[in-house]
Amino acid sequence: MLDYLARRLAVSALVLLLVSLIVFAGLRFLPGDPARVLAGTEADDVGVEAIRERYGLGRPLPVQYAAWLGQVLQGRFGESIRTRDPVARIVGHKLPITLQLAALALLVATGIGIPMGVLSAVRRNSVWDWLANAVSLSGVSIPNFWFGMLLILLFAVDLHWLPASGYVPPLEQPWENLQRMLMPALVLGTALSAYLMRQTRNSMLEVLAQDYIRTAYAKGVPARRVIVRHALRNGLLPVITILGLQAGDLISGAVVTEQIFVIPGFGRLILEAVFNRDYPMVQGVVLVTCTGYVAVNLLVDLAYSWANPRIRVRGGGRGG
Predict the structure, then answer these.
(1) What pLDDT shows up at residue 164?
(2) 79 phi, psi to nearest 5 deg
(3) What pLDDT sits at residue 320?
(4) Where are the domains of the chain?
(5) Mean of per-residue pLDDT scores for the chain
(6) How far is 189 from 102, CA to CA, in rounded Å?
């Protein structure tokens, strides 16, 4: 097991290095001069050159990359060109907001998608199956921005149950924070629950057709125990994969939802950094996002062995 983890960490480090190189080079090939964008349209050549010198934008690209990579290895991502604040501080302030939103969305998705998928598989070709499939198709088809506006009109404008937008830190006002994060979590979680429902249904149908399931029924094992302890546990493997991949997408792909509900999270930070051509900010945000993906993939591999004891990590050995 330790050898496997060591290999995975080495591969992960190589992936992060390649991603940082691709992002660094890709940003530099975008049209336009970042120094002139930062200085403004009315700045003269002297001001533009001063900004270029201040942030090292005039140095050769390999030198710029080596300097930035050296800062990253020391735990520093540089300073934002736009605000002149440390990138690590800004990311550390914005990322927990999106992590909370992603966690709530995952709770909504698993609370809806997995039970509906199990019910649809167990009651195949019944009214419940058709209803679950209709709900799943609706969840995939409805755009997030449209569903978000519908929720605002219903719960904020008509019923006055929830605030329409804004953000309050959870440590200051926990109940107010939950009220403001509920609708964004429903928007993101409903879309994800549709994928989870379909994947859970398909996986459960395959497992329920296995011989050991029929044997368990023949021995008189209660149906609930067969479904929960045998079928569901083995059918969770593809679902875990979907959850792992979608967890990273929730962190980096919540831009539209955060814009609709005016949440100052990671998604809005990414959009503003790209729009303002803030090289250090974009590089830091992408590197943090990629690190999250790598960490989630590693956790998914470990969760495989828990969900199905027959799956063991290669190279673990008896002494792992």
Answers:
(1) 87
(2) -110, 145
(3) 37
(4) 32-76, 91-272
(5) 80
(6) 8
